[in-house]
Amino acid sequence: MKIVYTPTHAAHGVKSEFDGVRPIPAYEVPLRAENVRTECEARKLGVFERPRDFGLGPIARVHDEAFMGFLRNAFQRFQAKHGRDVVEAFPSSWPARRLRQIPGQDIDGVMGYYCFDTATPILDGTWAAALDAVNCTLTAAGHVADAGDTAFALCRPPGHHAAQDLYGGYCFFNNAAIAAQWLTDRGRRVAILDVDYHHGNGTQEIFYRRSDVLTVSIHADPAWAYPHFLGYADEAGEGAGEGFNLNLPLPFGTDWQVYEQALGVALARVDAFGPDVVIVALGLDTYAEDPIAKFRLYKDDYFKLGARLARLKRPVLFTMEGGYNLEALGIVTANALEGFLNR
Ligand code: SP5
Ligand code: ZN
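Above: the input entities. Below: the C-alpha cells describing the complete assembly.
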C-alpha cells in the first residue's frame, strides 16, 4: 500500500475553536496526522511518499472559483480588518433563513457567507495545508487508478464537510470529492463510502444531482448530532442523482453489532453500483472514547471494519477524515488499514 503524506499539514496548526459555549482547545490538530504516521510507520503498513503538485485545476472541477479565491486571501483580509495580532479568523454572522445569500464586500460578511460553523478557523497556513491535502489525495488516487492498488492519503485538514462553495467542520477542500471527480474524468467509475461519525454533507451535496458517482454515508443521526442540517435517511439524491445517495443515520451508543448491519447495507449498495474505485472517507471518530462523538466502536472493531471493506475486492483509496482521540487515533487508523490489508 502507498501512503501519501507531507509535513505541510502542520502549517494549519489550529489552536482554538468555539463550541457555542466558550473558546476551547482545537480538536483538529497537527498531532492527529503525526500520531497516525508514527503508528503506520511502526507497523510498516505501507511505502511512504510525498505528494505531487496537481495545481488548482482538479480543485476547480469541484469547488467554486470565487470560493477558492476567498480561501486564498481570507486570512490576510481578516487580519487587515481586525489586526495583525489575530492568528485565527472566524466568522461572526451568517446569511440564515430569510436573509439574502450575498457575500458582500466586508470580510466578516464574506466569512459568514462561505462558512457554516464556528469550529473551523482560517490561519495563515491554512491555504497551503489544504492544497497539500488535496495533492496527497490525488497522488494516492493516481496509484489506485494506475496500479489498481490500495492507497492511503494521510492528510489533514479533512474534507468531507466542505461543499462547492462552503467550508466548515474542520474542512476546506473536499479531498475525497476532488479525487472522485479526478478519477471520473479519467474514465473510472467511483463510489464514495463515508464512515466518519459525522455525515459527509459536503460530499453528498457535491454529487447530489449526479448518477455517475455514488455517495454513501454511515453517521450519527443529524437530528441529534453535527452537522445537524443534512444527513437524514430520506435524502436519496435529486433529478438524475435520485437513488445515488444513501444515508444510514444511526443512534448514539451504536456499537459494532449495530454498526456492522449498516455497513452491510452500505457495502451491498456500493457493490451493486459496480465501481472501479471505492473511496473510503476514513473518519475514526466512531471510536468509543472520541471526545466529540457518541458511538461505541472499540479498537479491535477497526480490524473488522477493514476486513469488511476488503471483502468488496475492489481498489480502495482511503482518505483521512475525523477522529479526535489523540491516544487512540494512530492505533484505530492502523487497525482499520491492517484489517483491510490482511484480507
Ligand atoms: C471531519 C470532522 O469530523 N469534523 C467534525 C466537526 C465537528 N465539529 C463540531 C462538533 C461539536 C460537538 N460538540 C461536542 C462537545 C463535547 N465536549
Ligand atoms: Zn467526523
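Note for the figure: Residues 196-198, 283, 285, 321-322 surround zinc ion (ligand 2) (CB under 6 Å).
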